[in-house]
Batch of 3 targets.
Target 1
Amino acid sequence: MRQAYVIAGSEATGGAGIQVDLKTFQQLGVYGLGTITCIVSFDPKAGWAHRFVPIDPGVIADQFEAANAAFDLDTVKVGMLGTPATIDVVAGALASKAWRHVVVDPVLICKGQEPGAALDTDNALKAKILPLATVVTPNNFEAQTLAGMDLLRNVDDLAEAGRRILLQGPSAVVVKGGIDLPGPDAVDVLVQSVPGSEPSIEVFSVPKIGQERVSGAGCTFAAAITAHLALGASVHQAVAQAKEMVTAGIVARVSGHTPFDTVWQGV
């Protein structure tokens, strides 16, 4: 039985965060375990705005210690961290051992934080977590921010953003165009470093399923990549299979009383 580990926030409706990660791991046949970094709960009385509570860094370190004592973990997904203090403890924990794969879903601006605190978190993430990553999965906005680009309008822009992010340390970057990229297709671009040569570029494209955001798509995508890597897939194979899973999950999405639908991992 292979294991996949996740370090991420909790989201109470089950549509994002560590709840999605563990469901995705289970669906793909790996034993999932995780460390919670923060608690995000939507406020249905205030337009479903975010309420954000960080977990004490010492408690995060304790969770990391227990998980890594229980199993010989070598594949981890990093999701929402939320504060510079959390980033410090997670970066130190990750650097304390060797990993085969570190998949980073770079959640930047954390809704529910003051702008200044959010900027400090973004800068800490770029400085301390990205250099430890093997695969990074930014969405359109996150890729713009990490790459220092104003707008991503086409596949060439996605590829250029990926090349710029590669320079910050990871071995591979999957830039997700999503619904923000003009055109009828949902396009993701995988940019991988190639020793002694220019980075390789691969494009994954499927028709868009509507024009509305579906909660949990990014979490599911990164978690599926993590699970497939844990099972021995190549980065290319993991990305291709993750995109298939997310596409099917969006088609079969779950509706509730929230103003957004969520991906169904079980499809």
Target 2
Amino acid sequence: MSGKAAVVLPDNVLFEGGAGEKVRRKLLENCDLHTILRLPTGIFYAQGVKANVLFFDAKPKDGQIHTKGVWLYDLRTNKHFTLKTRTLKLDDLQDFIARYNPENRHQRIETERFKYYSYDTLMARDKASLDLFWLKDDSLENLDDLPAPEVLQQEIIEHLKAALASFRDVAAGLQRD
């Protein structure tokens, strides 16, 4: 079995419990999930919804763990795009494209925006969360450069929805015990 895929998914798929956690664990075990591109807010989904592109290769179901580690490229932190006035363009992706190195992924080099996490590190995280942050968000210190109120509002709503979903998972687990 062989094949390559790139799938666009909203942020909550990277960290939610329940079915989301099961899907992440299966993907990490049964495929070679090798790269995640963290996209700016509102590029694929509604304004305020963060998305990611997950790159993975199909592998045979042979009982082996096929993901050795995952490279994450952050095209979100300290980057500001809009769907109308500051759209994402090919030039904005050039650094990622250069570092992606599909011919030899094992010769990639970490940079400020491109980090490697081993399989063991990822599995040790709560719910095998793939929602990783390492860059400092400069907008949190510069109050004059905050996103528009409607963007902040949507981000708060999405975080609250994710928190509620996590709480429901915990509550359902408590009822089973």
Target 3
Amino acid sequence: MSVTARPETGSPLVSASPRPGHALVIGAAGFAWCSLALGLSTVGAINAAGSSVILAGTFFYGGLVQLVAGFFALASGATFAAAFLTTYGAFWLGYTAIQVYVAPHIVASVVGSGAHAGASALALQAQAGHDVVQALGVFLIAWLVVTLIFTVASLGTNAATVLAFGLLNVTIVLLIAAYLGASSVGAPASAALHGAGWAEIVLAGVAFYIVLAELANETLHRAVFPLFPLSRAAAQPA
């Protein structure tokens, strides 16, 4: 709220300056939704055909919405929120591209090149599957480094956010183990894969709680759902 004096009357002119929206909540909701959907798919609650439906959500809600929210957060000066939202918005866009285009392209390339060499169809499919999961493992190693950086930075926010990043690290480590430990035919290690799926479901629960807390605490004008700030700055309203 800003107060400006009117020279002709001497009385104050009060103009309400609208409070900027909290972009982090919008993007975090997309991240939570994608984590839950992918976690359910990973543990086998959704079959392979049904799992392809979630790609619409990972592209629009997890990808585009988070990316746009990140730019608004950057404009408001919220560097941590902006970095998180744009980074993981790009992750979900990349995940969608891998599933829709990149992985099928790798399979087609391996099968096409091997067919000219006279290799059997089964051997080519096994090789293609193995190449895809190995590439996914390397892809996630790079994302683990990024996530570890965010985890350290989150220590200045609140306990709920730190827990969410901790669970994200666990999820990525288990996925890396599942993909790099895949069989010769490209089947990920099932124990690690299912563990990653359950970790992702728990992560989604924590992320949804953060969204609920941010929204409810603002609309109810009191801290109904605590986030347990770890620093004095984090305790201030965004």
